[in-house]
Amino acid sequence: MKILYFASLKESLKIANEDMPASAGMTVKKLRLMLIKKYGKQHFPSNILCAVNHEISNDSIQLNNDDEVAFYPPVTGG
User: Fold this and answer.
1) CB neighbours (10 Å) of residue 45?
2) Between 1.10.1060.10, 1.10.3430.10, 3.40.50.720, 3.10.20.30, what CATH number should domain 2-72 receive?
3) Residues 43, 25, 3, 71: what is their CA dihedral angle, to the nearest 10 degrees?
4) Regarding beta strands 49-52 and 68-72, do their DSSP bridges make them parallel or antiparallel, or are they unpaired?
5) Can you count the helices (H) and strands (E) in the chain?
6) What are the residues whose beta carbons fall under 8 Å from the beta carbon of 17, sequence distance 6 or more?
7) DSSP assignment of 26-40, as one string?
8) Planar angle of CA 4, 54, 48, nearest 5 degrees
């Protein structure tokens, strides 16, 4: 699957995207936990948005190898 990072998350990770195989039973929650282990919890707070194939998703969504998963940090306005 292709993982995309946007805005300040992309800047802090110093990577815009990466490819990762989806294991059997992979969910958004499991992917998020893998990314926390790889990059640190500070980059993936509980309020980060995730979209799977261009649709906002929740943690229970099942993932496949052909999915595109995007993470968006919380947005602040002024």
Assistant:
1) 11
2) 3.10.20.30
3) -40
4) antiparallel
5) 2, 5
6) 2, 3, 4, 5
7) -BHHHHHHHHHHHH-
8) 55
Residues 5-31, mean pLDDT to the nearest whole number: 95
**pLDDT tens digits along 19-71:** 999 999 999 999 999 999 999 999 999 899 999 999 999 999 999 999 999 99
Tell me the residue type at 6: F
Residue 70 phi/psi, 5-degree rounding, is: -120, 140
Backbone angles phi, psi at 34, to 5 degrees: -65, -40
pTM of the model: 0.91
